[in-house]
Amino acid sequence: MAKKVAVIGAGVSGLISLKCCLDEGLEPTCFERTEDIGGLWRFKETVEDGRASIYQSVITNTSKEMSCFSDFPMPEDFPNFLHNSKLLEYFRIFAKTFDLLKYIQFQTTVLSVKKCPDFASSGQWEVYIQSNGKEQQVVFDAIMVCSGHHIQPHIPLKSFPGIEKFKGQYFHSRQYKDPAGFEGKRILVIGIGNSASDIACELSKKAAQVFISTRQGTWVMSRISEDGYPWDMVFHTRFNSMLRNVLPRTIVKWMMAQQMNRWFNHENYGLEPQNKYLMKEPVLNDDLPSRLLYGAIKVKTRVKELTETAVIFEDGTMEENIDVIVFATGYTLSFPFLDDSLVKVENNMVSLYKFMFPPHLKKSTFACIGLIQPLGSIFPTAELQARWVTRVFKGLCSLPSEKTMMMDIIKRNEKRIDLFGESQSQLLQTNYIDYLDELALEIGAKPDFISLFLKDPKLAAKLYFGPCNSYQYRLVGPGQWEGARNAILTQKQRILKPLKTRSLKSSSTIPASFLIKILGLLAVVLALFFQL
Ligand SMILES: Cc1cc2nc3c(=O)[nH]c(=O)nc-3n(C[C@H](O)[C@H](O)[C@H](O)COP(=O)(O)OP(=O)(O)OC[C@H]3O[C@@H](n4cnc5c(N)ncnc54)[C@H](O)[C@@H]3O)c2cc1C
Ligand SMILES: *[C@@H]1O[C@H](CO)[C@@H](O)[C@H](O)[C@H]1NC(C)=O
Description:
Number of strands: 24
Bound molecules: flavin-adenine dinucleotide, 2-acetamido-2-deoxy-beta-D-glucopyranose
CATH architecture of the largest domain: 3-Layer(bba) Sandwich
Strand content: 15-25%
CATH superfamily of the largest domain: FAD/NAD(P)-binding domain
Largest sheet: 5 strands, parallel
Strand order of the largest sheet: 3-2-1-7-22
Number of helices: 17
Oligomer: single chain
Number of domains: 2
CATH topology of the largest domain: FAD/NAD(P)-binding domain
Helix content: 25-40%
Shape: globular
Distance between the termini: 53 Å
């Protein structure tokens, strides 16, 4: 059964969707409105309508070993956290290796996607595209929406009374490219997400003074964790995830707060989150605490009101002579080419089964990829989504009933609010490893620990105590990759290689973190023993 699939967008999600379609023997066509691949990760000096826009200095907040696709490790000499140009280079090598470019129609915009009249029986779609000013309609068997969700800026101007009087300059963070032109200015950054913190830090090196306004506060984490390893390799192990799942919620939250305060006391720095026991996404920023310590950045509370030149805050304080306001207030979801009845955006949220499938369709021939904000890297997540979707399209996997899917959406939402809170920016949050495993289970690619432990204890130990990287999902099942075992065992080499730029005489000692792990394991064994 030949299945023609339309992939909308050639960012990361689109590229991996293309590869998964090809792996499953489907016939994909990708439509990309711009002239090149990469989406968000292709930096440009100018802001383009309808495409994500990043600043020149963006560096990944997820490490290379945790961000690569499952059968395509990043080159050994790539640094662990990548400048956007380097990440784009990886995507280019990826696209070339798997010969993806020939399936992409560039400078082609998808205007709308509609069900065919005989949808109930065929499950087909009419896709209206525009290229070189010409419109055209093409029929497809299935749709993968990969159009991204960092496009439509969200500026809540109504919450800023007096903004119309303000004489300075103000703009959304998506307009920000580099610190040139901001020398000597007094700048206020609104919001405290990853972009807000990056921009505040960068500007604070040139500006006279930077203020950062936050109502909620946030935890700040360093990219560097135990023994200098990337944070996500330590945080996202199955062992740690298991602990977070089995220990009582209140203890986990308390431990997280302790952990976060180990680097610096968030209360002293004015950053402590309003509800410190929510597992709200932390900001990853290595410079922010030191910038606060230098006084180059000052933390303020919510803005109450603006005058021509000054900003008045909720706590009654005022900062005069503000020249620039940067709204790092996030994005709104929007799918201009989709009908509301298909994917309805409400309160910046969509009701999709496992963040992918509209639950009410008669045929499972439509899915969104990458519409998610995991606590880990989005790339392996989008990959597993695409692996599952393509198997659903082929009829090798099937979805449950509409009712079951609706129930799942409601339950998942309740759990999310409990873990991460109600905040706007947290609407797509999920628990990283749990979600990956869930998707892998659907396609039969989740490793079975008990049998693996008996067959290959060394590998099993790495899987359980080591970082939960994407190679783990290529060990068994469809799409198995021979290189997966080796990629897992040689991971440390690829982490250290880019750092080994000066030869040293080697010495060998047992790292403290290893001993801590052994002690942790002992504690768990003891705890389990006494419970029984
Ligand atoms: C500053 C910043 C830093 C980030 N850092 C990380 C990180 O370190 N790690 C991580 O995992 N995630 C990170 N993210 C999350 C980010 O969303 C993902 O990394 C990823 O780039 C999303 O890819 P995408 O393909 O889904 O969307 P995009 O990259 O936005 O690509 C969408 C593509 O679709 C095209 N398109 C849109 N509409 C149409 C249409 N109608 N017709 C045709 N084409 C269309 C666009 O032109 C674009 O090329 C970051 C996000 C931001 C904003
Ligand atoms: C990395 O930064 C982007 C942009 O702010 C954010 O969407 C994403 O959730 C961050 N990832 C992690 C793991 O913090």
